[in-house]
Write a structure and sequence with these properties.
It is a single chain. By secondary structure, this protein is an alpha+beta fold. It has helices spanning 30-37, 39-42, 82-93, and strands spanning 4-12, 17-25, 53-55, 58-60, 71-74. The chain has one domain: Ubiquitin-like (UB roll) (Roll). Helices cover 26% and strands 30% of the residues. A hairpin with a 2-residue loop joins strand 3 and strand 4 (58-60). The N and C termini lie far apart (63 Å).
Length: 94
């Protein structure tokens, strides 16, 4: 029996959030875990060719091999520059 590891796959869409706990074989890649999670079927807006992915807020490639308790994250594009948004909030409260 192959060794199993536990990982999480998460994605925060514009209207919904997903967090999936998975048990996968040791040696599973980040891309394989995303496919196994079923998120690509439930959130068709996910485009792995264009959207960055990572583990615990650090960008990684789809061929990165996962380790026990890794949290795989799919990042969607920002709708506003955080610095610009902060400046607008500061001006609005002044």
């Amino acid at each position: 029996m192959a060794e199993q590891i536990h990982v999480q796959v998460c994605y925060a869409g514009a209207t919904a959030q997903w967090l999936r706990d998975l048990t996968v074989a040791a040696g599973t890649t980040l891309g394989q875990a995303i496919a196994a999670s079923g998120l690509l079927l439930e959130a068709p807006e996910i485009d792995l060719a264009a959207m960055p992915v990572g583990i615990f807020s650090k960008k990684k490639t789809l061929d990165t091999v996962l380790r026990e308790h890794d949290r795989v994250e799919i990042y969607r594009p920002l709708i506003a520059d955080p610095k610009h948004a902060r400046r607008r909030r500061k001006v609005a409260t002044a």
